[in-house]
Amino acid sequence: MDASVKSFKRKELGMKIFRACFLTVTVLFVLFPLYWMFITSLKGERELFANVQTFFPREITWQYYFDPVNGIFGANSPFLSFFINSMIVSFVSMVLCLVIGSYAAYALARFKMKNNRNEKLSFLILTARMLPPIVVVIPMYLIMQNIGLLNTLWSMLIVYIGFNLPFVIWMLKAFFEEIPVELEESAMVDGSSRMRAYHSIILPLVIPGFVATSIFTVILTWNEFLFAMFLLNSTDKMTLPAGISTFITQYQTNWGALCAAATVSVIPVLFFSLLVQKHLVKGMTLGAVKG
């Protein structure tokens, strides 16, 4: 008995050590590129182009951030313009996607059609998101050119809403299906309209789902590069992914400024994720189980 208990404890201890080692390696593997990007932005030019690279900067410098000439926050740098454009496009497209997508998702979750057409229609909507962006980038360029929206943030909003809306509808539909229909039926029996029951009873219960969906939407929009590169061609309209690519020219690559800009661009998404982390966990678990 004692031998079997000791054997079980040894196996349990071995599994704990294995899990700890596996998680440590995974975290290091994920975070190392971010760490390398950050320390590269703090290295001086001589250390940056040395034959032997160091894991810790010998001399920390903030010249690629705050230098008046070469820094990304310098007077002549367009980085702040890139940053503001990305904030506008990401936030506005996220809000509009959630507002429009929530009504569509609610309708698909509650109003059942014959022959299981709800599921077929949901899948049909999701197929729009499966299209590779490279397939539609030229048609989108021609459309925006013809309607006079080329090189404007409006074109980016239209494209991002169109591409993210199927994903939002698909995610929110699963969250609405988790809410018992009896809740809104009870409200309607008491005299409430369906829309009032939706706004006052259903929406507060689906907030974790909205948070989870908003994070994915923001990340998809914030990191999008292809459409931003094709549809925006002036630096005062570019978003961060397209703008940061301008640090790479045919003559040289400004690695220090590039890494500094990439480091700063990570902060808003990271801050937003930490801010809504509590609701994010609830949202992921709410949409993962069907009753």
Amount of beta strand: under 5%
Distance between the termini: 42 Å
Classify the fold: give the CATH topology of the largest domain.
Answer: MetI-like fold
- What is the second-level CATH architecture of the largest domain? Orthogonal Bundle
The number of helical segments is 14
Average pLDDT score: 87
Using the alpha-carbon principal axes, give the shape.
flat
Q: Which segments are poorly predicted (pLDDT under 50) over 5 or more consecutive residues?
A: none
Derived structural class: mainly alpha
Say which CATH homologous superfamily of the largest domain is assigned.
MetI-like
C-alpha Rg, in Å? Answer: 25 Å
Total number of strands: 0
Query: What pattern of helices and strands is seen along the backbone?
Result: HHHHHHHHHHHHHH
What's the helix and strand layout?
Layout: H1 2-42, H2 45-48, H3 63-66, H4 79-110, H5 117-130, H6 133-146, H7 153-178, H8 181-189, H9 194-205, H10 207-222, H11 226-231, H12 240-244, H13 255-275, H14 277-286
Helix pairs in contact: 1-13, 4-7, 4-10, 5-7, 7-10, 8-9, 10-14
Can you walk through the features of this model?
There is one protein chain. This protein is mostly helical and 291 residues long. It folds into 2 domains: 1-66; 78-286, MetI-like (MetI-like fold). The chain is 74% helix and 0% strand. The chain is built from 14 helices and no strands. The chain has helices at 2-42, 45-48, 63-66, 79-110, 117-130, 133-146, 153-178, 181-189, 194-205, 207-222, 226-231, 240-244, 255-275, 277-286. Helix 4 (79-110) runs parallel beside helix 7. The longest helix is centred in the N-terminal third of the chain and has 41 residues, at 2-42. The protein starts with a helix and ends in a 5-residue tail after the last helix. The mean pLDDT is 87.
